[in-house]
Write a structure and sequence with these properties.
268 residues; two-stranded antiparallel ribbon; mainly alpha; 76% helix; globular
Length: 268
């Protein structure tokens, strides 16, 4: 059934994301915060080995929402980043008082807060932010889909069994090649350089793979199979968003720090 429910719900979620992305930036920011809150519930459940920690989840949710609000109000990314620090400290203190993996609970604030700020900033402050995010989504989705298909069809040696027992070299390379092809086609259709886009799509897919591997490692570390069961065919929100979390933070660094134009010649 996963071969039916996974693409069906994946396409539905993608459609919602794209529709909201091209609406008002504040509405997209609200969606980002809502997803972050659902992901926060799952993160603190994972690092508590299946037990629910409402206090840390609430701190995470409030911190991310406040940081995004500050970012939209001040247009200063650094101020919003500073907002994350007190939330991490409070989450650490709450977990430490129960001797319940305080570092992991505190890390959840950054794990979800940084991508939330990255996505919000790209959409709100980058002139072509919506198109940049679409391109990033295509790379991430193509990487995940290609890895699933090539991994199942070819199989072969495991890439990092300690981190993720199911991830193969065939799936990893196949996912990157799929990302290169899809992103090249997207940029070519928009009138940009397909060759540069293909190279970028292949290299940038590493960020998506890294996000997937990290979440797999965390779940393996705490003995949890799926982060949740909210999305049929995908598992939890974190299971669906793990690659996007890493990719969005990397994309924001490339755009705002390195000054990269990830649309490769596409006219404004």
């Amino acid at each position: 059934m996963d071969w039916i429910t996974r693409p069906l719900f994946g396409l539905a979620l993608a459609a919602v994301a794209i529709i909201v992305l091209f609406s008002h930036p504040y509405l997209f920011a609200a969606l980002v915060v809502a997803i972050s809150i659902a992901a926060a519930w799952e993160w603190h459940r994972i690092v508590s080995k299946g037990r629910v920690h409402r206090a840390e989840t609430a701190v995470n949710a409030v911190t991310v929402a406040l940081a995004v609000t500050v970012l939209l109000g001040t247009r200063q990314i650094w101020i919003a980043l500073i907002v994350l620090a007190p939330g991490a400290v409070v989450a650490w203190w709450l977990a430490a008082s129960r001797h319940a993996h305080p570092v992991w609970h505190a890390a959840g604030i950054l794990y979800l807060g940084l991508p939330a700020l990255a996505l919000t900033a790209l959409r709100a402050f980058e002139p072509r932010g919506a198109m940049v995010i679409v391109g990033m989504f295509l790379i991430v989705w193509a990487t995940d889909t290609g890895a699933l298909i090539f991994g199942n069809l070819i199989g072969g040696p495991r890439m990092a069994p300690v981190l993720s027992p199911s991830k193969t070299w065939a799936g990893t390379i196949g996912g990157s090649l799929t990302a290169a092809a899809i992103f090249a086609a997207f940029i070519w259709f928009m009138g940009g350089s397909a060759g540069e886009a293909a190279l970028f799509g292949f290299v940038f897919s590493i960020a998506a793979h890294a996000g997937d591997l990290f979440e797999s490692f965390v779940k393996r570390r705490f003995g949890i199979k799926d982060s949740g069961s909210l999305i049929p065919g995908h598992g939890g929100v974190l299971d669906r968003m793990d690659s996007t979390l890493a990719a969005s933070a990397v994309m924001a660094l490339l755009v705002f720090v390195a000054g990269l134009n990830p649309l490769f010649g596409v006219a404004a």
